[in-house]
Amino acid sequence: MKENIKHLFSRMKRRKANIHKPEKEKSGIRKDTSKRTAFAVWSLIGGLLFVSTLAVMLSVNTRSTFNDLRAAVNDDDDQQEEEGDMDIITADTFLRDFVDAYMNVSNDPDALEQRRQELDHYMASRETEEEWDIYDVEMEGERRLENADLFHVDETDGEAVFAYAVTYVNEREEEIEPEDDDDDPQIEVTNEEKTLLLNIPVVEQDGQYAVTREPYFTAVDDLAGSITVENEDRQMDAYVGDEQEAILAFVNEFFEEYASGEEDDLTYMMQDPESLDGTFNYEGTVNETIEQQEDEFLVNTEVQMTEDVTGLNYTFEVDLYIGESNGNYIVETMDYQ
């Protein structure tokens, strides 16, 4: 029995070994990957668009921030510049009394002590105990200020130098021994007038001022320059028509009233009445030229007048623009040349 079973299993193994499983042929059809490729491409495009949009937004935001920062810096610079400009009028008011105290010097001890106290009020404080040289005065006679005018102001970083044209007198008394011993000594007074620039360095802080350095003298600059003015080559188309005599007669009558009359007397002759109110006497006009324009006449002339009291000659060139009103001539505009 056992042998029969063993024989049966042996036959089954041999039969199974003789069975050949056919090899599976590879398919020639490739899988469809187009959807996956399209998804990848569109994902890449979307990513690029997102990155580009983000870059533009960052650029705009950066530019806006930069512009705001630059505007803030400019505003700060403008504010500092405005704050750096010294108020000339108030500084001049502060320095006027300083100029008086500095320039007026006497060899009297009490006067010198008073001057020292006055100057100390205007001088800046020093970190050391060293005194300003302007306090130490040794002199003979006195210095007396006659006049002081603000000449110019030089502003630098943190400081301004105010230059005053000062006219002052140095006066000294000198005792002269007499030739005769019995005579009393004679007192001779020497006066010397000078004009120089007194330069005063000043600083300002919170609307208050102080002199920061010793004042110093320099020569007064000559402001008169060698300047040549070119004469205007004026070309006018002279009018010699029927109204020429009437216009010149009106001009003479007008200047007669303008020189010696009152403003009310010119209401019918001038669009905006004005007069010299009798200060001058009208003498006449010379070099008259009339030009006809679109709606008016232009009269260029030299007017001669004399001062009422002194008889001093006064000549000026003027352009009169003359129109018509209610059939009469009227000065619309008068321009001094």
Can you describe this structure?
With 337 residues, the protein is an alpha+beta fold. It has 3 domains: 39-77; 88-218, Nuclear Transport Factor 2, Chain: A (Roll); 244-336, Nuclear Transport Factor 2, Chain: A (Roll), CATH 3.10.450. It is 34% helix and 32% strand. It has 5 helices and 10 strands. It has helices at residues 2-18, 34-84, 88-103, 109-120, 244-260; strands spanning 105-106, 142-156, 159-176, 186-205, 208-211, 216-218, 280-292, 297-307, 313-325, 328-336. Strands 1, 2, 3, 4, 5 and 6 form a 6-stranded antiparallel β-sheet that branches. The protein has a 4-stranded antiparallel β-sheet with strand order 7-8-9-10, covered by helices on one side. The protein is flat and about 185 Å long. The termini are far apart. The mean pLDDT is 81.
Descriptive key words:
337 residues, alpha+beta, Nuclear Transport Factor 2, Chain: A, 3 domains, 6-stranded antiparallel β-sheet, 4-stranded antiparallel β-sheet, 34% helix, TcpC, Conjugative transposon protein TcpC, TcpC_C
Please outline the helices and strands:
Blueprint lengths: L1 H17 L15 H51 L3 H16 L1 E2 L2 H12 L21 E15 L2 E18 L9 E20 L2 E4 L4 E3 L25 H17 L19 E13 L4 E11 L5 E13 L2 E9 L1
Brief sketch in words of this structure:
With 337 residues, this protein is an alpha+beta fold. It has 5 helices and 10 strands, in the order αααβαβββββαββββ. It folds into 3 domains: 39-77; 88-218, Nuclear Transport Factor 2, Chain: A (Roll); 244-336, Nuclear Transport Factor 2, Chain: A, CATH 3.10.450.
